Inverse folding.
């Protein structure tokens, strides 16, 4: 999901101890005026955490959690398995109480939630929480009933039970499960089971959907479908708190928190994280002339540095802004007599972004992470 | 309130639908216990197993003959004499070698009737306490019967031997009457002479009774001895008849002879068997019908299965939710622990009632167990038993961390119920405070209540049963309600 370049300037130097600024999560297709993000609809973030800590035996858990999740966005908590994502989820849901720090969801401490707050949350756990002996429809009916939607026979008349049945049918339809609604849970495919679990989390139309690894163990096609569902839910105004160990899925979020070793490294938009990882936006530059000295590009005001050689006549160049930088480099190459030069914004994978940020975090003085590519120039000289 | 009802009913419906989707499970629950009882009923042998017995004693021993007669006449089941042995030690070796089940050692005939009790030894080697008890009872019964037979026979012998004495005594009494009539008319010397003659006759009679009644005296019979003593006293009186007032002495002798005659007549007229066994037992049962062992066990098995099914389902249901991660979903949802427990309990109660109805119909229809005399009380008893058991099941779920722990604890409850509910041993044989373990089990209350309603035909169940079951249910459910959230948080 590309960001609107007009809304993002290079990040200023930050005091590491200061809480992260409220990110701008507006999207290009957002009908709202530029600069008016979903986060500004309600000044108070839906999830607010400061210095939250919850450690288990062996020092696992989460520490120094600072987090603000605005309403109406997809917040992605990205990190490897065992990094502390589920602990954050359990804190947000009120399943465990912070040992230290302040945590509020809906303006209240989650561990003190009553039924009024709980009915506003939908939760998808990592493991299936549904009854394997019930059909998909019966499972969904059961979950709906937990939230006050009457589970009654279709033969019993009544406005409320009819509304509940219609809601269940609508959610089944939304997740393409209508045809399989009478399949027993244990006989359903992995994808159907996962979709039903998501349906169960949203059947009562919650404001906040907490999805713990919703795409774990399912095929890429279904993963894409699910993210399309998440996006549409976000577009309807719901807030999604999603954890994933698929780093590439961070690109689909409006706001990303990187969790490593029980700490949140950064909370920001995907684009800003990418810029931080590589020292700016990346532009991929390719040319034909063997004699061109590409290092001259670094003299341009828009260019920060050549980030990496990725081929004999191909480099990645870090710029302040991908679009304006690419245009300026294209002009410069033509000025150097290149007939058909290429300079296009490069959208590196979030795997690289993640690895780069984690490497820098673990070893601030070490060599920067290199993207996967041939890093040798025509002259045979290796470029760092 | 409406939402709370909807949430509670959600659990009821989920469990019901889930169970209906597993018809095999339902069939197992109903047919399993029935088949156990059915196979037990088919294989159960009401008579005691026959014990192969050898008797140590002389083949021509009178006592051996009596023993054989007793076993044949009384149709003693369970004991079959397969032979006699001369050597006691050899017979005991056979017992040790498991070639025989029982060895009976008879006393030699010359030890009998010596004025001391002769001992019949009975040796058995069964590890089964029921068989041991059977042998003890059979031995006691056989010896008592032989004793009675001997006493009766002795009596008959005495009757035979004293049969002719009745006429002689009657003649003596006639002669005494004549003597009395002559006092005052005949001279003193004639009277004295006649009295001396009569005294000798009476002494002779006493001697004859003494000879015939010796055996009776050896077996403790008193009548011949009393008659003999009366006659000797009378003879003494006549031999020393007073010259001044003989009439009074003769009257006294007449009374003695009358008493002796009466005793002798009683002895002759008495039934020897009645004298030997003056009492007999007639046992009447107030139960509507004879309670056989399978009838006795049927309500017990029903009570046991109700407790086991309810505990297992309630415990495993909640623990399974924890394993599946459902607990987290439920904790995040607006469902309260109370609603969750109420819904789950109600579903297990409905399921348990279906199982109870089916099992009750089967044991009444197939085993002929009497139907409850009060169906309302029976239904209440089953319902309260299920509720108390579900409370225990929830408590197990609150204590157990895993499925296997829950299964182990459920099986432990089953084992406890088998031993302590009165099914295995009568409750009266379990002493306090251990008996409180029995009364802490729903099965015990249900078993006692069902015995009252089905086997004893009592229309009411003891209030103690209702109170006990209610206390178990309340304690179990409240404890589970308090402990379960803690366990869910620390799972």
């Amino acid at each position: 999901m590309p960001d609107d370049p007009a809304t993002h300037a290079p990040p200023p130097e930050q005091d590491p101890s200061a809480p992260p600024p409220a990110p701008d999560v507006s999207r290009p297709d957002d009908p709202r005026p530029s600069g008016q993000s979903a986060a500004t609809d309600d000044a108070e973030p839906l999830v607010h955490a400061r210095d939250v800590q919850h450690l288990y035996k062996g020092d696992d858990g989460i520490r120094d959690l600072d987090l603000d999740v605005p309403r109406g966005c997809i917040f992605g908590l990205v990190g490897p398995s065992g990094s502390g994502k589920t602990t954050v989820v359990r804190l947000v849901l009120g399943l465990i109480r912070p040992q230290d720090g302040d945590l509020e969801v809906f303006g209240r401490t989650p561990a003190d939630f009553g039924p009024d707050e709980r009915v506003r949350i939908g939760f998808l756990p990592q493991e299936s929480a549904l009854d394997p002996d019930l059909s998909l429809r019966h499972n969904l009916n059961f979950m709906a009933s937990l939230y006050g939607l009457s589970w009654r026979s279709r033969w019993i008349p009544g406005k409320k039970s009819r509304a509940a049945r219609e809601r269940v049918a609508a959610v089944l339809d939304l997740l393409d499960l209508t045809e399989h609604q009478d399949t027993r849970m244990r006989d359903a495919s992995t994808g159907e089971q996962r979709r039903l679990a998501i349906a169960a989390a949203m059947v009562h139309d919650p404001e906040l959907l907490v999805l713990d690894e919703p795409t774990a163990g399912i095929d890429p096609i279904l993963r894409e479908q699910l993210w399309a569902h998440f996006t549409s839910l976000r577009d309807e105004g719901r807030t999604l708190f999603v954890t994933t160990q698929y780093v590439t899925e961070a690109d689909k979020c409006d706001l990303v928190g990187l969790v490593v070793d029980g700490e949140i490294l950064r909370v920001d938009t995907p684009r800003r994280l990418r810029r931080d990882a590589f020292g700016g936006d990346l532009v991929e530059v390719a040319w034909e002339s063997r004699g061109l000295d590409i290092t001259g590009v670094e003299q341009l005001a828009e260019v920060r540095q050549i980030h990496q050689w990725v081929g004999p006549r191909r480099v990645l160049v870090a710029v302040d802004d991908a679009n304006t930088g690419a245009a300026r480099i294209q002009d410069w190459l033509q000025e150097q007599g290149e007939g058909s030069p290429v300079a296009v914004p490069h959208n590196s994978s979030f795997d690289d972004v993640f690895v780069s940020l984690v490497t820098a975090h673990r070893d601030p003085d070490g060599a920067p992470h290199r993207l996967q590519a041939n890093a040798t120039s025509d002259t045979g000289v290796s470029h760092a | 309130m409406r939402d709370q009802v909807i949430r509670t009913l959600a659990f009821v419906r989920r469990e019901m639908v889930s169970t209906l989707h597993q018809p095999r499970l339902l069939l197992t629950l109903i047919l399993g216990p029935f088949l156990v009882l059915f196979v037990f009923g088919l294989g159960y042998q009401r008579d005691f197993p026959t014990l192969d017995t050898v008797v140590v004693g002389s083949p021509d021993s009178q006592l051996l003959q009596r023993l054989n007669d007793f076993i044949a006449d009384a149709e003693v089941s369970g004991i079959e004499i397969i032979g006699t042995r001369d050597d006691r030690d050899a017979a005991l070796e056979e017992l040790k070698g498991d070639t025989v089940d029982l060895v009976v050692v008879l006393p030699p005939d010359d030890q009998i009737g010596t004025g001391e009790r002769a001992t019949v030894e009975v040796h058995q080697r069964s590890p089964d306490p029921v068989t041991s008890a059977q042998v003890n009872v059979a031995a006691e019964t056989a010896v008592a019967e032989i004793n009675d037979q001997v006493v009766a026979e002795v009596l008959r012998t005495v009757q035979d031997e004293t049969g002719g004495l009745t006429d002689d005594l009657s003649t003596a009494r006639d002669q005494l009457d004549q003597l009395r009539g002559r006092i005052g008319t005949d001279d003193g010397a004639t009277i004295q002479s006649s009295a001396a003659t009569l005294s000798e006759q009476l002494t002779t009679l006493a001697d004859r009774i003494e000879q015939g009644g010796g055996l009776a005296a050896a077996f403790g019979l008193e009548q011949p001895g009393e008659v003999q003593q009366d006659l000797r006293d009378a003879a003494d009186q006549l031999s020393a008849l007073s010259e001044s007032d003989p009439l009074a002495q003769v009257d006294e002798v007449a009374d003695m002879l009358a008493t002796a005659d009466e005793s002798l007549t009683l002895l002759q007229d008495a039934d020897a068997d009645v004298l030997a066994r003056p009492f007999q037992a007639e046992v009447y049962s107030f139960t509507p019908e004879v309670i056989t062992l399978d009838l006795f066990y049927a309500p017990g098995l029903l009570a046991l299965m109700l407790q086991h099914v309810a505990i297992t389902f309630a415990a495993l249901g909640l623990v399974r939710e924890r394993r599946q991660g459902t607990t987290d979903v439920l904790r995040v949802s607006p469902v309260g622990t109370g609603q969750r427990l109420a819904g789950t309990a109600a579903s297990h109660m409905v399921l348990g009632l279906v199982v109870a109805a089916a099992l009750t119909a089967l044991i009444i229809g197939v085993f002929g167990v009497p139907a409850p005399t009060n169906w309302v009380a029976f239904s209440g008893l089953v319902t309260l038993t299920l509720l108390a058991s579900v409370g225990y099941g929830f408590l197990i779920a609150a204590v157990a961390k895993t499925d296997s722990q829950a299964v182990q604890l459920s099986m432990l409850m089953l084992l406890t119920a088998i031993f302590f509910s009165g099914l295995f041993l009568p409750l009266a044989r379990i002493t306090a405070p251990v008996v409180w373990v029995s009364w802490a089990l729903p099965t015990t209350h249900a078993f006692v209540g069902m015995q009252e309603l089905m086997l004893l035909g009592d229309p009411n169940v003891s209030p103690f049963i209702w109170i006990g079951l209610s206390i178990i249910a309340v304690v179990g459910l409240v404890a589970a309600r308090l402990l379960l959230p803690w366990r869910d948080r620390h799972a």
About this structure: Chain A is about 25% helix and 20% strand. The interface with chain B takes residues 90, 93-96, 114-116, 118-119, 121, 123, 125-131, 133-134, 138, 141-143, 145-151, 184, 200, 210 of chain A (CB under 8 Å).
